[in-house]
């Protein structure tokens, strides 16, 4: 019975998502954000943290940094009492601010934890704060003013422009940049060695390409490929797991448009949809191909205007087939103008 109890945490660790298993535990281990890490480490030495606003693309270390700060300040035990994490995309209304946030922020702090700085305030981590309504943000601003002596607010978001100015002006702002391929490759190599994976040389480049600088997505791709291909991973394995449309299919779609073959181009596009790829994925890869294609800037501009419109309509729930057909039509017209001008 004792042996079973002892091995339970080990089994849980073995089956844990690698994103959590290999999440940095201290601020200095956060990858590729040297300037931010330097500033925050200096603040940690004094224990006097300001309200913080972390912004930047997904998977660049915002949540990891906030959690690491809290754990360094309070340790594993006091952390449970002094830190509260909320996801504002799930709980974004004013009632959450008035109830959950106010209740936590107004509480007095208890005794410090031996061996840790344990400053006399709590930390509220509000992830995806840019999803909060305007009224909720206004109420949050008043909370930040009222309870600043006993609570520090860490706001995490992708788009800083969606945070109202009165909140942004009360925070120290830190911009997190997408991770470089070299940095991402080094971290993925470390994880691969720890997990005993056999990886080809192009795995890291493919992870970086298909994650777009998002470390969380890159690690998830690596773990998914490891499970699917029994620990023997190649660049092609990553491409398959990422749900990438084969490049030759996107090229054929563009070539058919260039040749003015509307019915064939539309039928080919519908075949891609039937293969299980989403309309948004087609837009994403088609835009990348057009950007690098051998056509004039005027043609690219016309196609990209239509790409933007289709993207907006798809986000609003429009029919994928109809919207992509209008993209094919616009592409044919734009490319035909270039051909006639030549």
Describe what you observe in this structure.
This protein is of the alpha/beta class and 342 residues long. The chain folds into 3 domains: 2-175, Rossmann fold (3-Layer(aba) Sandwich); 181-241, Helicase, Ruva Protein, domain 3 (Orthogonal Bundle), CATH 1.10.8; 247-341, Zinc Finger, Delta Prime, domain 3 (Up-down Bundle), CATH 1.20.272. It has 16 helices and 7 strands. The longest helix has 22 residues, at 320-341. The strands form 2 sheets. A 5-stranded parallel β-sheet has the order 2-3-4-1-5. Strands 6-7 form a two-stranded parallel sheet. Strand 3, helix 6 and strand 4 (151-157) form a beta-alpha-beta unit. The chain has helices at residues 2-14, 18-21, 34-46, 62-82, 94-106, 134-146, 165-168, 181-195, 203-211, 215-228, 235-241, 247-258, 262-274, 279-292, 297-315, 320-341, and strands at residues 52-55, 83-87, 122-127, 151-157, 172-175, 198-199, 232-233.
């Amino acid at each position: 019975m004792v042996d079973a109890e002892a091995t339970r945490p080990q089994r849980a660790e073995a089956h844990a998502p690698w994103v959590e298993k290999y999440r940095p535990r201290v601020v200095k281990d956060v990858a590729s954000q040297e300037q931010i890490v330097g500033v925050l480490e200096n603040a940690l030495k004094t224990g006097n943290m300001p309200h913080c606003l972390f912004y930047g693309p997904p998977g660049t270390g915002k949540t990891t940094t906030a959690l690491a700060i809290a754990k360094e300040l309070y340790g594993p035990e006091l952390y449970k009492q002094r830190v509260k994490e909320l996801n504002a995309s799930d709980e974004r209304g004013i009632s959450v601010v008035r109830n959950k946030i106010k209740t936590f922020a107004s509480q007095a702090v208890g005794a410090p934890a031996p061996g840790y700085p344990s400053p006399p305030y709590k930390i509220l981590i509000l992830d995806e704060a840019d999803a909060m309504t305007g009224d909720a943000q206004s109420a949050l601003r008043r909370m930040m003013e009222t309870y600043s002596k006993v609570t520090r607010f860490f706001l995490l978001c992708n788009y800083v422009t969606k945070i109202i100015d009165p909140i942004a002006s009360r925070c120290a702002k830190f911009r997190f940049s997408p991770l470089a391929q070299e940095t991402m490759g080094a971290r993925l190599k470390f994880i691969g060695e720890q997990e005993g994976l056999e990886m080809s040389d192009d795995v890291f480049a493919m992870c970086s390409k298909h994650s777009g600088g998002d470390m969380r997505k890159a690690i998830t791709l690596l773990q998914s490929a490891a499970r699917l291909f029994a620990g023997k991973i190649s660049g092609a394995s990553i491409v398959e797991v990422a749900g990438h449309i084969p490049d030759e299919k996107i090229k054929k779609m563009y070539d058919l448009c260039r040749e003015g073959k509307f019915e064939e181009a539309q039928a080919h596009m519908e075949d891609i949809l039937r293969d299980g790829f989403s309309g948004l994925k087609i837009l994403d890869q088609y835009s990348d191909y057009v950007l690098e294609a051998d056509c004039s800037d005027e043609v690219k501009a016309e196609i990209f205007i239509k790409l933007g419109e289709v993207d907006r309509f798809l986000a609003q729930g429009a029919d994928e087939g109809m919207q992509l057909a209008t993209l094919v039509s616009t592409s044919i017209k734009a490319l035909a103008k270039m051909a006639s001008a030549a």
